Amino acid sequence: LQAKVASVYESPGFFLGLDPIPGALEAMREMIHMQDTEVFICTSPLRKYEHCIVEKYKWVEKHLGPEFVERIILTRDKTVVSADLLFDDKDTIRGAELNPSWEHVLFTCCHNRHVQLQAPRRRLLSWADDWKAILESKRRQ
Asked: Which residue has the higher pLDDT, 140 or 16?
């Protein structure tokens, strides 16, 4: 089964054909214009990256435009990226840095709905959720 699943997400067109998460594009466009806010797209390539990397760049250009392509950070280890917040659907992010500079806000998806977060960890249920309050709370710290 694992090989069958991998054959789907490693196939040409998989990443390019993904639909945007509802509200995500609008949130990104709004964030990029917010005062004192720098927005980057931090994404990890698959180990078999033949199609993945190019398609992720093309997807961003198609849906967000060329100005966002310049804001892509492609890394296998997100813990080494310097930031204040990281919105990510992966419930546990490990890497070389044991205490990353960013706060991980878990973005709710079908594969992580069951995950119970311990305080002070936070979750964003969707882009219709109050993501601005999360940004503002971080500014006040």
From this structure: 16
